[in-house]
């Protein structure tokens, strides 16, 4: 859990150096193998994701489940599935939702599934829908940010730096041949383990030290600095506020070291960073960030916040 004082953002204290590696020395194959050896399956992709995508849980009259690949290190355990509108009409706006690009960020996956089960039917006659509910299933099961090849899928949505997970998504999107995506929401979380595990590991991999950071307590959005669309971002924030609290800026006016441009909104060069939200060049794109360790949050609230972001985005576009 985060700080018990909801008025203060938690500053997470980390150990001087990650347990694997040596300061000043990037990891070799030996350290990479050491990291892989300490990972373990902690939950079931089949039970928590795949079983929820069967016809008993989705309205298969209007939605269809399609397999778009499988992870090569275990194709039977990690098939890759998307859910899309059964009837795709060129004259409708097109919605793309990606969840689980970082597999450990649970509400990104479960929020996407919740949208499909509870809300998609309210919109499927107005928009074309495509949802990748769990882009990184190995990382979902192992509760990791990296994939099994020790790469960050959410820095790999550019040509030449692809991971297996991002390549599978990009290949399927190319086959869809959509002329213009209207909306793309990439669903994420910012967690205490970002500061205690995942960022220390990332720095150690490069032989670098990692210092404490402020983890924002609340929901926020990361827009694309090349296509900020702040009115869209603000509409999403307004809808999420009905469900959960919005992250305040730190004492420097920042969230994760980026200036807050509007309440709960920061912008970054998404394409330059290889972020998933940049993959389509859509009209309205954003990355959601939920803080599940907040004393003011529950798993259900986090899932509903992700759903509210999606429906807020849809309502904004459909109202124009």
Short description:
This protein has 320 residues and is of the alpha/beta class. It is 30% helix and 18% strand.
Mean pLDDT score:
94
Strand order of the largest sheet: 2-3-5-4-6-12-8-11
What is the helical fraction, as a range of percent? Answer: 25-40%
Radius of gyration: 19 Å
- Poorly predicted runs are 1-7
**Element order, helices and strands?**
EHHEEEHEHHEHEEHEEEHEH
The main sheet comes to: 8 strands, mixed
Determine the structural class based on helices, strands and strand pairing. alpha/beta
Strands, count? 12
Q: Report, as a whole number of angstroms, the end-to-end distance.
A: 40 Å
The number of helices is 9
Strand content: 15-25%
Characterize the overall form: globular
Question: Explain this structure to me?
Answer:
The chain has 320 residues and is α/β, with parallel strands linked by helices. It has nine helices and twelve strands. The chain has helices at 29-37, 45-48, 106-119, 137-142, 164-176, 192-205, 230-240, 270-273, 299-318, and strands spanning 11-12, 63-70, 79-85, 94-99, 128-132, 183-189, 213-214, 220-224, 254-255, 258-259, 265-268, 284-290. An eight-stranded mixed sheet has the order 2-3-5-4-6-12-8-11. Helix 3 (106-119) links the parallel strand 4 and strand 5. Helix 3 (106-119) packs across helix 9 and helix 7 crosses helix 9 (299-318). The N and C termini lie far apart (40 Å). The model is unreliable at 1-7 (pLDDT under 50).
